[in-house]
Amino acid sequence: MVLPRHKLRGLSMLNVALVAVVLAIAVSAYLLFFKSDSPAAATARPAVAVARGDVTASVSSSGTLASPQTASPQFATSGTVTSILVKVGQVVAKGAAIAKIDPSAAERAVRIAEQNQTAAADSVNAAEQTLSDAQDAADAAAATPTPTPATGQSQGQSQSPEVVLSNAKAGLAKATADKEQADQNLEAAQADLGATTLKAPIAGTVTAINGTVGSVAGGSSSGSSSGSTGSGSSTGQGSTATSGSTSTATSGGFIDISDLKSLQVVAAFPEADAIKIKANQSATVTLNAEPGTNITARLIAVSPTPTTTNGVVSYSATFSLSKLPAAARIGQTANVSVQTAKATNVLYVPSTAIVTSGTTHTVTMADGAGTKTVQVGVQGNSFTQVTSGLNEGDRVELIQGAIGAAGGTGGAGGAGQGGQGRTGQFPGGGAGGGGQFPGGAGGGANRGN
Questions:
Q1: Is the residue at 62 inside a domain?
Q2: Do residues 109 and 131 share a domain?
Q3: What's in the keyword line of the UniProt record (predicted)?
Q4: 363 is in which domain, residue-wise?
Q5: Which of 300, 309, 310, 226 is nearest to 266 (CA)?
Q6: Would you place residue 324 in the very low, low, confident or very high pLDDT band (cuts 50, 70, 90)?
Q7: C-alpha to C-alpha distance for 290 and 306, rounded to whole angstroms
Q8: Are 412 and 443 in contact (CB under 8 A)?
């Protein structure tokens, strides 16, 4: 079948249009998928100039806010609690009365001890008088000659003055010892009576009350106190065990008290970082509860003994705070950064520009001059001091950031990977390669390290 001429002309124009569209698509695809992967693009790396300024090195950890001094006083004598004079959250002074137990038994013991002391004192007085009389008799006998008894006359059975005097001395010694024991018993009874009133051993805030009125407390422990930098025994959180109708406080302390006016940060550092820190180093603390607030701190001490958790060895460090935020509470999470070294007004480059092999450090020059060996000083978290080998203004390549500059590995719609430079140095590309150092050509977001 032969088509009319005008129909053949229309079909030819349609074919030409289709061919043109196909060619346009092919060219676009070539430019998109092949041109961007040229050797020049693949090897392009961001370059930076050697700058001058300050370089600091630091180690970081997280810990908690803790009280520098705590105490858990307990009644030294046993008795039934009759009153609790404080509440949780109340601030108490050192030596203030905080609780009382029934003093009846202690008062009765004091009365008995006083009576025994009085009796012992009377015995001493009587023994002293007996000794005085014996001494007078002995002196009189010594001054009067003893007549010789007649033959066959028997002597009286009375003791000689010397024996009477010796017995009087022994009696006084025993009476004196009994009086001393009575005095000690009275002092102990008076101390037990005083112990029926529990007093705060430190100034601070009541953080827990581990008993109730009517419970039996004391007798088993005198309480304990501890400091964060001392070696005191640990303080226990009290609990109350109920048996029948009488409850007994079983904790190491009847009331817990903590100093909340000068909280400290206690943080654990891994052994590799612990050897870099020492007392009196400055630090910066931030609280998770107040992330925008930086608190100046000072390292007080590093524990000489390690703690091992899941095979990881760490050392506890204690920091004092220059100023305590009003909202700070015991147990809050705190992040601490300790400055371990600082170099002022020195040449530095991003740490990602330096390649280290053993003790050799090299950089790649951005002018095509190849690599150059440099000497480094303080190595901070983001920047490294260069002590020799470079001049201010020299441009070096970010070796570890080459992947980000090369456009990443994302295809169309994939995620392009940004540069591996440390956070805050050189940003990776934006979505679809729109950043300073472009990422992949795909529409995914870059991930800068």
A1: no
A2: yes
A3: Coiled coil, Membrane, Transmembrane, Transmembrane helix
A4: 264-393
A5: 300
A6: confident
A7: 30
A8: yes
